[in-house]
Amino acid sequence: MSDMKWNDQAEKALAVLNKGAFLTTAHDGKTNTMTISWGSLGFVWRRPIFTVLVRPSRHTFGIIEKSGEFTVTIPLEDMQQALALCGSKSGRDLDKFAAAGIKTLPGRTGNTPVIDCAGFHYECRVIYKQAMNPANADAEVDATCYATGDHHVMYYGEIVAVYSK
Predict the structure, then answer these.
(1) SS3 string of 103-123?
(2) Are 134 and 146 contacting, i.e. CB atoms less than 8 angstroms apart?
(3) Distance CA 147, CA 141 (A)
(4) Could you state, in order of their start, the residue ranges of all structural domains in the chain?
(5) Which of 53, 72, 104, 129 sits between 20 and 30 A of 41, alpha carbons compared?
């Protein structure tokens, strides 16, 4: 594992994120991961921030609400089958790790692990969250991305560790 600065590989990380990454969270002996392809890296409140979006209907939502932390693993190897499973099945119904054949490594700073793969690993502590207000959304975005009304909560995670494997 090689330590990195939060923005060392930002362009590459964001290009891969668009194809799929793992958002993982853990609390009270429960760990879940889900696939994300939306998010952003930036600098807010004098801190490096990874912003992720999670719908309240997702199993991950309840866990991240309790834990206040998450990790993002951006794989640099072919993990499309695992990403597809983790993006289409709920951790309420099965052990995604076993079903997808993925393993975890302990996080360095918190209780949430990272996915064991070649890639970039961001450990984040939630410092702000905001539920989307549909009245503030562009009409086309709201119609195409939120037809069922299941609007995301945006989590701003201070990046407390970042490294590559």
Answers:
(1) CEECCCCCCCCEECCCEEEEE
(2) yes
(3) 9
(4) 2-164
(5) 104
pTM of the model: 0.95
Output the six-digit token pair for 134: 């549909």
Distance CA 152, CA 98 (A): 27
Residues 6+ apart with CB under 8 A from 24: 31, 32, 33, 70, 71, 72, 73, 104, 112, 113, 114, 115
Neighbours of 163 (CB within 10 A): 15
Q: What's the pLDDT tens digit per position in 97-153?
A: 999 999 999 999 999 999 999 999 999 999 999 999 999 999 999 999 999 999 999
Which tokens go with 93? 């119904």
Instruction: Provide φ and ψ at 115, rounded to 5°.
Output: -80, 135
Tokens of 95: 């052990």
